[in-house]
Amino acid sequence: MVLLGVVLLGVAFFFIRLAESSWVCKNGQWIKHGWPRIDKPNTLCAVQPKTNNSTDKETAVAKECSVEKDACGAVVKDAKKIDFASTVLKPELINITEPAPNASIKSPLKISGQARDAWFENSSFGVFVVDRDSNLVASGTALAQVSQVNGDFITFTAELRFLPTPATSGKIFAVPGGSQNPLAKEIVEIPIKFTPVDKLKVLLYFANTTKANADCSTVFSVEREISVGSELYTTLDSLIMGPTSEEKEAGYVSYLTAAMTFNEVGSSLDQVTVKLRVPPEILAKSDCTLPGIRAQITETAKQFPNVEGVEVLINDTKIFD
Q1: Which of 118, 126, 147, 174 is deepest in the core (most CB within 10 A)?
Q2: Does residue 28 fall inside a structural domain?
Q3: CA dihedral sign of residues 89, 91, 95, 96
Q4: Which among 187, 293, 304, 298 has a CA at the least distance from the CA of 242?
Q5: Considering only CA atoms, which of 187, 83, 97 is closest in space to residue 137?
Q6: Most trustworthy range by pLDDT among 146-150, 232-236, 251-255
Q7: CA 252 to chain centre
Q8: Same domain, 112 and 149
Q9: What is the pLDDT of residue 69?
Q10: At 212, phi and psi to the nearest 5?
Q11: CB 307 within 8 A of CB 270
Q12: 3-state secondary structure 145-206
């Protein structure tokens, strides 16, 4: 009887843990909690900004939420779809002044407005752009401009970059910072339209000899305009061409050279694999060549939506961190 009781207790514990099981988003990573009944999500785990400010620093707001329990109020439909239980703007909480409702937008998209202090966590909150079918187009982080306070309202700004979409309309969601925020369910939206484009502004990352405390893997962005179509490959091809004359005068240098060639640029879900052919004599020139190449390719590729991981192989050998 004692043995039977122990077995029954173990079975009960198993089903209790199973009921509590889920994939939990924490610090930008999906963490297994118990024994989830679903595979590890391949949707975004955190609000990952694809923006650059004047100091080239990137920030991220990690939202602790569960796909199964819907703690963040988001309904994740599949790997590229996301929706929120949202309402129209609430002027008593937040005002988005740019873009205006039903405005036509394109990349890079600047978002600005004012929100109450309670809307922020760590001086930031999440913003999302989706098309009319709830396909995720872009996500990022709005940052408080603490020097610009108007009564109880704080000015915020964000810049999102995204690929052209065939959709003609969509929405921008503003999500209060922090899953424990009392305003967590007060998600607001504004309708927008997408401007058809044949050109796209992207970022290329290079080293810069004028920046203090910059090591081999520290890179900084410059802007380029490319034609729409095969955007990732075109951007990497522009990267290998190196800085312009003006950029070189400003201290920008590249570990990539025109003597190198991309053998393959492939992607699977949120992972990109880049295979590069490099003459051996170039690799022997500097200890910075390998980490520098990896940093340039990784940061340039990760600006694209849904790219979370980048694997770089040089002459069929993977470059590790």
Answers
A1: 174
A2: no
A3: positive
A4: 293
A5: 83
A6: 251-255
A7: 25
A8: yes
A9: 32
A10: -70, 145
A11: yes
A12: EEEEEECCEEEEEEEECCCCCCCCEEEEEEECCCCCCCCCCCCEEEEEEECCCCEEEEEEEE
Amino acid identity at 207 = A
Q: How far apart are CA 182 and CA 121, in angstroms?
A: 11
d(CA 126, CA 103): 20
139/78 Cα distance (integer angstroms) = 16
**Run of H or E residues at 102:** none
Please write the tens of the pLDDT for every residue from 26-72.
444 445 544 444 455 444 433 333 333 333 333 232 233 333 333 34
Rounded Cα distance, 51 and 142, in Å = 10
Same domain? 173 vs 221 = no
Q: Is 211 left (phi over 0), alpha (psi -120 to 50) or beta?
A: beta
Q: Are 65 and 24 in contact (CB under 8 A)?
A: yes
Angle at 305 between CA 65 and CA 255, to 5 degrees: 120
DSSP H or E segment with residue 291: helix 289-301
> How far out from the chain centre does Cα 22 lie?
23
Decide: 283 and 290 in contact? Cβ < 8 Å: yes
Q: What is the token pair recorded at 75?
A: 């309904």
| Residue position matching structure tokens 């052919």 | 277
Is residue 286 scored above 50 in pLDDT?
yes
**3-class secondary structure, 313:** strand
Same domain, 170 and 208: no
How far is it, in rounded angstroms, from Cα 254 to Cα 320? Answer: 19
Residues 129, 169 within the same domain? yes
